[in-house]
Every structure is written in structure tokens, then in C-alpha cells.
């Protein structure tokens, strides 16, 4: 079956611009996660959705970052006034649910470069 | 903050060698430990999810063990092949039951033919 997809695969933007990153989870997966991987580090948690609601957004670095999942499926991560430090690979993952340690299935990521 | 540490940071081995990596994590309030393999330009692939102290899991030539009391997990690869070249990530559930993962920085394995 189809896995988690993310678009675009690469995004180059200028400092100060707004960007949107899209994640299509596996059909039927109610839990959706966003992570960010900076060079030389492991992925870092950003936000977690259970259904349509953000159950935990404690990893969002500041108020320039926002994510939505209006219909409980596709999610969009939005970054306002991008900074060079936002350059990273943004990963999306989905799982059947939470509460039990289900495997998280990851997408291939979006590589964001802020120039 | 639950720091997850992996060692070594990188590893170069010859084809046919067996190898192992370490993941260490705070043992308090443990819920689950995940191992992933991440090949360049691909999605991270789940290898194992482990929950019980003493767990041992195996998938082909790859196996993992878990010690929740002392806070470590080992990943073993028997008879490494060039296609095993990847970054291996471990992650701990950070908050009990939400699936929020706290990752280590990864171990990058290069297997030379």
C-alpha cells in the first residue's frame, strides 16, 4: 500500500519568506507526527496530532511555526518569516494510534534550505 | 529532557564483518525503545519496537537487545553487507503513551565490499 508521502521533496526559500510543507499519512492512521532533523543530529520532535487536534505541540521552537490537520488526514506545517536556522530536513510520520507503542511510518522528508 | 545517546557516531567495516552499536537512555519512566534504519534519500524504516526488559528481537541478520533497568539497547548486525550501509537511529518514547519519540544522533555505518 501507499506509504507516507511528503511534498515538496526539496524547498529553497529566501530568508523572511513563508513556506508550507505537506504530509499525506497512511490511510487510517490517526496519529501524525512532525520531526525536524538538523545536520549531524537525530530527528527532533515538533508536534503530534491525534485526529484533527494537536495533542502535543511542545516541540515547536517558536510562534513562527504552526501546523494543521483539519480533516484528520493530510497535515501542513507552516513556517512564517523563515530564518537560516530553519534549514533542516522536516520529517512526517504516522501510526495507527498512540497509547500503545505502534511503529511510526516515516515519509522521505522535505529538505528545506533558507538562503 | 530525556537524552538518548548513541555510539559510535560512525563506523566503517568490511563486508562480512559483524558489528554492534549502543543506545543509552534514561531508564526512569520507560515505555518503549525504537530502532530505525535510514538510508540516504529514503524514508527511515522501522526495525524494532521494544518494551520489556530483556527483550530480544531479530530480523534477518539484524538483532537487538534491551535493558530497561540500566538504560541501554544494543543493535547487532551479523555478516555486514554493503546494503546495510545506513544511519541507524534509536529513539525512546518521551512521554509515556503519545508516541512522541526522542531520538539519538544516530550511528552511520559504511560497509565496504
Low-confidence stretches of chain A: none
Most extensive interface: A-B, 30 and 29 residues
Query: Which series of helices and strands of chain B comes N to C?
Result: EEEEEEEEEEE
Shape of chain B: globular
End-to-end distance of chain A: 37 Å
Helix content class of chain B: under 10%
Unreliable parts of chain B:
none
Share of residues in strands of chain A? over 45%
Count of alpha/pi helices of chain B: 0
Silhouette of chain A: globular
Element pattern of chain A in H and E: EEEEEEEEEEE
Question: What does it look like?
Answer:
The complex is a heterodimer of chains A (115) and B (113). Chain A has strands spanning 5-7, 10-13, 19-24, 31-37, 44-50, 53-56, 65-68, 75-79, 88-95, 105-106, 110-114. With 115 residues, chain A is mainly β. In chain B, strands 2, 4, 5, 9, 10 and 11 form a 6-stranded mixed beta sheet that branches. A 5-stranded antiparallel beta sheet of chain B has the order 1-3-8-7-6, with no helix packed on it. The radius of gyration of chain B is 14 Å and the shape is globular. At the A-B interface, β4, β5 and β10 of A face β5, β9 and β10 of B.
Amino acid at each position: 500500500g501507499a506509504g507516507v508521502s511528503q511534498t515538496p521533496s526539496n524547498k529553497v526559500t529566501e530568508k523572511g519568506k513563508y513556506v508550507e510543507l505537506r504530509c499525506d499519512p497512511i490511510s487510517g492512521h490517526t496519529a501524525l507526527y512532525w520531526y525536524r532533523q538538523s545536520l549531524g543530529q537525530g530527528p527532533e520532535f515538533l508536534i503530534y496530532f491525534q485526529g484533527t487536534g494537536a495533542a502535543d505541540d511542545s516541540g515547536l521552537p517558536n510562534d513562527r511555526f504552526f501546523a494543521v490537520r483539519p480533516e484528520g488526514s493530510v497535515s501542513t506545517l507552516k513556517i512564517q518569516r523563515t530564518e537560516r536556522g530553519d534549514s533542516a530536513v522536516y520529517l512526517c510520520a504516522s501510526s495507527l494510534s498512540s497509547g500503545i507503542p505502534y511503529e511510526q511510518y516515516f515519509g522521505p522528508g522535505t529538505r528545506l534550505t533558507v538562503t | 529532557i530525556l537524552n538518548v545517546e548513541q555510539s559510535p557516531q560512525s563506523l566503517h567495516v568490511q563486508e562480512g564483518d559483524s558489528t554492534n552499536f549502543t543506545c543509552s537512555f534514561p531508564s526512569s519512566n520507560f515505555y518503549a525503545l525504537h530502532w530505525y534504519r535510514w538510508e540516504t534519500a529514503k524514508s527511515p524504516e522501522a526495525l524494532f519496537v521494544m518494551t520489556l526488559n530483556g527483550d530480544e528481537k531479530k530480523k534477518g541478520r539484524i538483532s537487538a537487545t534491551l535493558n530497561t533497568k540500566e538504560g541501554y539497547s544494543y543493535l547487532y548486525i551479523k555478516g555486514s553487507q554493503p546494503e546495510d550501509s545506513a544511519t541507524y537511529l534509536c529513539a525512546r518514547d518521551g512521554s509515556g503513551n503519545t508516541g512522541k519519540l526522542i531520538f539519538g544522533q544516530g550511528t552511520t555505518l559504511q560497509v565496504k565490499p
